[in-house]
Amino acid sequence: MPTITVDGRQVRVEEGRTILQALDDAGLLMDGVDVPHYCWHPGLAVDGSCRLCQVEVEGLGGLQIACNTPVADGMVVHTTSDRVRDARAGVMELLLVNHPLDCPICDQAGECKLQDYAFEYGAAGARTREPRRALQKRVPLGPTIVLDQERCILCRRCVRFCREVTGTGELGIANRGDRSVIETFPGVELDNPYSMNVADICPVGALTTRDFRFKVRVWFLEERPGICTGCARGCNVWLGVAHGEVQRYTARRNDRVNGSWICDAGRLSYREIAAPDRLRTPLVRGEDGVLRSAELDVALDAATRRLRELIDAKGPGMLAALASAHLTNEDLAALRRLLDRLGVDAAGLTLVMGEGDDLLVHPEKGANAAGARAAGFGDPAPILERLRGGGLEGLIVLGHDLLHPTLLGSPDALDDLATLIVLDTHRSELERVADVVIPGRHLAEKGGTLVNAEGVVQEVAAAVEPPFPATAQAEVLDRLAEALAPRLAQAGGDG
Amino acid sequence: MVIPEAARDAIDAAIGRYPEPRAALLPALHIVQRELGCVPLEAARELAAIFAVAPVEVLELLSFYNLFRVEPGGRHRVNVCTNLPCSLRGARALLRGLEAHLGVAAGETTRDGRITLGHEECLGACAWAPMLRIDGDYHENLDLEDAKRLLDGLE
């Protein structure tokens, strides 16, 4: 492996990489060695158009752009010399010649590389007196993205993303010189399942998502690490939290899982967290057959009593559990503890299968399907069979994926159950037949460990509090197990 | 199809001249413009299909070079060079005079569809400035009266 020296620091690099790539490989880029750059992106091919990443390489005349200069053994690179700083200042001055400087009304302000580097390298005033180019400030490029032509610095990241990553090629640069603008072909929209990534990678405020545009100032956001729960890929996201609520997901780079991208459906799935159909309160069915809201203790008591009666009367063989593929390993372990204590063997995984693609979207619609299988929750078919045939008396259901047409479909088959305990995050048709319904927490509200489709184990912490009292599923299950324990222990432990 | 058969054959021949088919996209734009007088968006879409690129990539090339047009314009294109040497020899006054003579501004087409007037970047005829180009032909060392006569003689 060749070794290069960057600002006096020895860096071992892979053959064939460029200086910027090698710094990124070593985890040093912008984290030890700051080489500002706009057009280079780890998920895209080298472009070399913005010229900001110029560095000094000993033995080579002139400055070299780090993104496109291949490493060579013994290469000595300087990134902080006066020459380099002067060059950066010059590039910044050129990039700012036509910039509208409308930061006060720009969504990117606060997380803008142009702003950051103008602050670091830019002059306080402009030397030009010519009018800045006046262009369109809000061009809808498609259903998800709006373009401000004036703010664009023509780094071509968005253009390259659509060509190299999605292969959809909607974007290009029309015209030439200071008339250049990002364009779509007339009649063609930027519309693909990953389109909103272009807003993430736009280093300035030119591309914004319709979803987040003008929603909240980014300096009010606290960015907390999270995982998208939409499918078994388990893409890493940043949860932008303000006013106690998740305001957006953006892609969080993880080269082992999702690279630098997330799909649009996943990006918008933050809406599930504060959705109006969240289950806000425990529900207990009364003697009169009506489901009413209740305190958690009351609901747990009702669930305990019903489970105890069922097991006393029919034995644990008539009880089963179905777990959602959205549950964390911690939830699943707690469910397993409860089932062991009850002596219940029948446990299945309700995993919804859907569309997948060859980029990120996985056909298994549950972030912890692999974790659930590893915890022994497998094919639910035998349980579904018994449900349809009336061969079960009781069921504990976590999540409502069970109602998906590919699984049970309608809740009608659950009508005859003596006991149906539901633990869920969102309201569903299960309420029609459930005896006890207990609200659980979304991953963003509880954190936990998930295993993605490739077997990568990922742990995240809770990022927000639920907007109403909800208890993590694992804790609800443990409390149930505890409440049921003494009675079962008295019964001789043969459960 | 807006690209005629003969032009399509010429495009295929052009593709055959390059190791990378894409390299023939620029010649193909010239072929289409020669045939149709411009490269309408529909033709750009057809070229994209022929070259297996996104339509916007054809638009990038088409809009980069200002000698390509997407609108047909008049029967003749008259372009006055307004770069420095021609301007020093009165090109701007020449252009203003022709605008007045034809009753259109640069970039516009006369109402009878005869002439589209425009200005032009350097055509390499600085030694005989000022000059203008009528369709493919150069006319050099002009004064306003010469130029008016040239234009009046156009069909």
Task: Characterise the protein shown here.
- The complex is a heterodimer of chains A (495) and B (155).
- Chain A is of the alpha+beta class and 495 residues long.
- Chain A has 3 domains: 3-94, Ubiquitin-like (UB roll) (Roll); 129-272, Alpha-Beta Plaits (2-Layer Sandwich); 283-490, 3-Layer(aba) Sandwich (Rossmann fold), CATH 3.40.50.
- Chain A has 12 helices and 22 strands.
- Chain A is elongated, with a radius of gyration of 28 Å.
- The mean pLDDT of chain A is 95.
- Chain B has 2 domains: 5-64; 76-152, 3-Layer(aba) Sandwich (Glutaredoxin), CATH 3.40.30.10.
- In chain B, strand 3 and strand 4 (137-139) form a beta hairpin.
- Chain B has 155 residues and is an alpha+beta fold.
- Chain B starts with a helix and ends with a helix.
- A 4-stranded mixed beta sheet of chain B has the order 2-1-3-4, with helices on one face.
- Chain B is elongated, with a radius of gyration of 18 Å.
- Chain B is built from 7 helices and 4 strands, in the order H-H-H-H-E-H-H-E-E-E-H.
- The longest helix of chain B has 12 residues, at 5-16.
- The model of chain B has no long low-confidence stretch (mean pLDDT 95).
- Chain A binds chain B through residues 163, 168-176, 183-186, 188, and chain B through 41, 44-45, 48, 53-60, 63-66.
Question: What layout of secondary structure does this protein have?
Answer:
The complex is a heterodimer of chains A (495) and B (155).
Chain A: E1 3-6, E2 9-12, H1 19-25, E3 54-57, E4 64-65, E5 76-78, H2 82-96, H3 113-121, E6 139-140, E7 145-147, H4 157-165, E8 171-174, E9 181-184, H5 197-201, E10 207-209, E11 222-227, E12 236-242, E13 245-251, H6 264-268, E14 283-285, E15 291-293, H7 296-314, E16 319-324, H8 329-342, E17 347-350, H9 369-374, H10 381-388, E18 394-398, E19 419-424, E20 436-439, H11 443-446, E21 448-451, E22 457-460, H12 473-490
Parallel strand pairs in A: 1-5, 16-17, 16-18, 18-19, 19-20
Antiparallel strand pairs in A: 1-2, 3-4, 3-5, 6-7, 7-10, 8-9, 11-12, 12-13, 14-15, 14-20, 21-22
Chain B: H1 5-16, H2 25-36, H3 41-51, H4 55-64, E1 76-81, H5 84-88, H6 91-102, E2 115-120, E3 132-134, E4 137-139, H7 144-152
Parallel strand pairs in B: 1-2
Antiparallel strand pairs in B: 1-3, 3-4
Helix pairs in contact in B: 1-2, 2-3, 3-4
